[in-house]
């Protein structure tokens, strides 16, 4: 019940009531008159009301539903004399009906009426009920002067009937105070016992539900519905459902009763270890789907969160709704219980076959397979082979180091690759595209051996040495300690450097060159050449000739 229109005043009720009766009697005499003239042009009938007095009556009051005039000149008609030459046929009908009601009124019975406020005066209001007009003094109305009561529906109880004066007095205040007393009694009992009671859901809103408990409405806020936390009530209840509730508090000023459904039921978190444990497989119902994951109902007033990463072994899950539907029952594994935070996490994919297991049964390192590019990053591309994804690193795209995944591939491309590594425990697969092509260094090694003198162009400088390009897609490293007699700080990109191949590893595509060894090797080759040019019969004396001659 709303009480914002209630206004309580201390007024002399008896004096006001008597004044109202006097005014009613003086201005609303019920008389019998005779129709002496009907003037349809001016829409009035002239009625002789006795004592040589004529009064005007609007024709609209004596027309039937089809618009026909129900009386003729000479007919007698009952009217209410409203003074100043004004009379009313409808008021007379109401007066007659009221008199009949009063004559049949039983003082031993209680009469509760429901009508509409139609008039207002200083003393109070006129409430019309099925054509009958009852008087409601302002002090018994509980209607605030700040609102316009005309047209307002009210419920009241008859408190006084004056058969002599033909008046009926009703009180809205009486009913309201009864309701207040009943409300206070209900609230006191609810708050004192703190025991669950059965209530009926009357209305569901976005912020909670209004529940009728013993004839009084209380609000169950959406945060007080479930131990799961705030929930949308319309997903769990319908109007008319019966629920167990307990009273939380009562605001007397606002007359607001707060109820709780969750406090009327056991809290599963107080004994969660006996209900569920990590590793348990349970059946859950999908209750809410979000882009980042799914909330599932485990029963026992428990809810768990299924993160998007735990839905499928497929790492490219765009939205959970592509895999699950609201209301669907699924089996999940409990993977985390946070007692302090009252949170449960579950996994769906942990109960599904691992794609890596199936992959390792079918493929081995060295196998050549076809796959589809699913995504491209700064460091490479992910290629789906069967039901798993492998990484095709930029270094494995091509022997040409200027090429990478972004320059050579696009999402959706089908590529042929070689499996170069499988890490089953980490769930990682490494792929290579360049492994399907001949290595430039391998071809280079067929024509160059350790000790061969080569010339290269500086491509890059690092703290540990200098990279030079020997041929297309063939690079070599000159370590800092192998640069002598060249000075590291004086070397520039694009500069040609001559050196000796000191190491070739064609399996790992590595070549090292040394400038330091070049000088010693050139000296050794010069000595070897000198020895080849000498005659075998030449003696030491011949060699030094005249140097020993004086």
UniProtKB/TrEMBL annotation:
GO BP term, example: translation
Keyword Ribosomal protein carried by entry: yes
Example of a GO cellular component annotation carried by this entry: ribonucleoprotein complex
Alphabetically ordered keywords of this record: Ribonucleoprotein, Ribosomal protein
MF-aspect GO terms: mRNA binding; structural constituent of ribosome
Domain named S1 motif: residues: 28-96, 110-173, 194-262, 279-349, 366-434, 451-516
Entries under CDD domains matching the protein: S1_RPS1_repeat_ec3 (cd05688)
Keyword Ribonucleoprotein: yes
Record-linked PROSITE patterns: S1
Listed InterPro entries: NA-bd_OB-fold, Ribos_protein_bS1-like, Ribosomal_protein_S1-like, S1_domain
Assigned protein family: Belongs to the bacterial ribosomal protein bS1 family.
Name the record gives this protein: 30S ribosomal protein S1
Organism listed in the record: Sulfurovum riftiae
Lineage of origin: Bacteria, Pseudomonadati, Campylobacterota, Epsilonproteobacteria, Campylobacterales
């Amino acid at each position: 019940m709303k009480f914002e229109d209630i206004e309580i005043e201390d007024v002399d009720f008896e004096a006001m009531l008597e004044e109202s009766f006097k005014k009613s009697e003086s201005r609303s005499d019920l008389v019998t008159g005779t129709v002496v003239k009907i003037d349809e042009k001016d829409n009035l009938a002239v009625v002789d009301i006795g004592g040589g007095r004529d009064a005007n009556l609007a024709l609209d009051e004596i027309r039937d539903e089809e618009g026909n005039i129900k009386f003729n000149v000479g007919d007698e008609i009952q009217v209410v004399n409203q003074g100043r030459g004004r009379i009313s046929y409808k008021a007379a009908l109401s007066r007659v009906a009221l008199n009949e009601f009063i004559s049949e009124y039983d003082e031993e019975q209680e009469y509760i009426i429901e009508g509409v406020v139609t008039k207002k005066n200083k003393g109070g209001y006129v409430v019309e009920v099925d054509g009958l007009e009852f008087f409601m003094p302002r002090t018994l109305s509980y209607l605030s002067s700040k609102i316009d009561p005309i047209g307002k529906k009210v419920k009241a109880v008859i408190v006084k009937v004056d058969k002599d004066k033909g008046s009926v007095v009703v009180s809205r205040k009486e009913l309201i105070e009864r309701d207040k007393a009943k409300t206070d009694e209900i609230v006191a009992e609810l708050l004192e016992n703190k025991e669950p009671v059965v209530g009926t859901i009357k209305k569901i809103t976005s912020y909670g539900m209004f529940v009728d408990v013993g004839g009084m409405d209380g609000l169950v806020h959406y945060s007080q519905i479930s131990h799961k936390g705030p929930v949308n009530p319309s997903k769990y209840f319908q109007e008319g459902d019966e629920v167990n509730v307990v009273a939380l508090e009562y605001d007397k000023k606002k007359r607001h009763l707060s109820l709780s459904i969750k406090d009327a039921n056991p809290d599963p978190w107080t004994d969660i270890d006996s209900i569920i444990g990590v590793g348990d497989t349970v059946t859950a119902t999908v209750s809410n789907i979000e882009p980042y994951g799914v909330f599932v109902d485990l029963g026992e007033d428990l809810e768990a969160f299924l993160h998007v990463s735990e839905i499928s072994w497929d790492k490219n899950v765009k939205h959970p709704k592509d895999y699950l539907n609201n209301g669907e029952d699924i089996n999940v594994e409990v993977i985390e219980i946070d007692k302090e935070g009252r949170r449960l996490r579950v996994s769906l994919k942990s109960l599904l076959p691992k794609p890596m297991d199936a992959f390792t049964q079918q493929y081995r390192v060295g196998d050549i397979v076809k796959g589809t590019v699913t995504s491209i990053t700064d460091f490479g591309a992910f290629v789906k082979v069967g039901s798993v994804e492998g990484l095709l690193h930029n270094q494995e795209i091509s022997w040409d180091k200027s090429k990478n995944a972004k320059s050579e591939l696009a999402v959706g491309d089908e590529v042929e690759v070689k499996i170069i590594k499988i890490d089953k425990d980490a769930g990682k697969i490494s792929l290579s595209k360049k492994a399907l092509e001949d290595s430039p260094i391998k071809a280079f090694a067929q024509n160059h051996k350790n000790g061969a003198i080569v010339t290269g162009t500086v491509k890059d400088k690092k703290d540990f040495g200098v990279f030079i390009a020997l041929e297309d897609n063939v690079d070599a490293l000159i370590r800092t300690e192998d640069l002598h007699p060249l000075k590291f700080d004086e070397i520039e990109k694009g500069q040609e450097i001559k050196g000796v191949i000191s190491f070739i590893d064609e399996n790992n595509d590595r070549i090292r060159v040394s400038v330091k060894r070049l000088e010693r090797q050139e000296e050794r080759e010069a000595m070897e050449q000198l020895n080849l040019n000498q005659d075998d019969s030449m003696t030491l004396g011949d060699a030094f000739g005249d140097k020993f001659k004086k």
